[in-house]
Amino acid sequence: MSFSQSAADIFAPDGAPLPVTLKRTTHLCIAAHQDDIEIMAYHGIAACYGRDDRGFTGVVVTDGAGSPRAGAFAALSDEQMKAVRAEEQRQAARVGQYSVVIQLAHPSAVVKTSSGEPVRRDLAEILRECSPQVVYLHNPADKHDTHVAVFLRSLEALRQLPRDRRPKKVLGCEGWRDLDWLPDDDKRPLDVSAQPDLAVELLGCFQSQITGGKRYDLATMGRRLANATFHASHAIDRHAALTWAMDLTPLVQDDRLPVEPFILRFIDRLRDDVAARLRKFSA
Ligand SMILES: [Zn+2]
Known about the structure:
single chain; alpha/beta; eight-stranded mixed sheet; 8 strands
């Protein structure tokens, strides 16, 4: 299997060859940046951790060159930063016992500006070789351009699969913008209470980001706790940590379903919910 970028990096913590790692994949996350996987798809990592019958695979589309840097990382060139971030991602794969992590090393600008063909082709190659039950993607209402571009390329690649080989569950996850705004009926709760030490350790692998002045580690754990606590006002917390997801499976099952009206329907339902509650108590 060959990828478009010569710098693409394939790392299986147990040294298994790529075809084997893809074959054993049951949970797959396709993300834009190093550390996105650990923020958005911990649910899948934890589901596979320590299990012989499951495998978690992470795909990172971009090369990590453009990230802000400070402290010990302030003087690093883009090339050095790419190397640091790639190793941080490999370390997370070791800690989380992933089946494999594939870093496709596309420059972020190319992901956002080109036709998307090289990214789509790389993702289609990976998808052809694996049959995940669950796929975690960025959600289409995310506010980061690269996340949305990667989501669209992922969807296109998934739609290239024969219909009977498409995953049964595809989830859009929280990243730059959480999903607390989804009306409750549209929320897909992912219980991420399992092994909190593992969750913290995974987020801590990305020191170049955290010491750059962005406490993604604390913010991510905080968001999971906030989701669990603020979910239901009249019920005690059933989970210690929750991630919200959006069910994107209909988009993957139906090639003709356009993304924009699909996502705008969720926003319309939020609008209706707010208006209805106000009307209920208006004089
Ligand atoms: Zn990201």
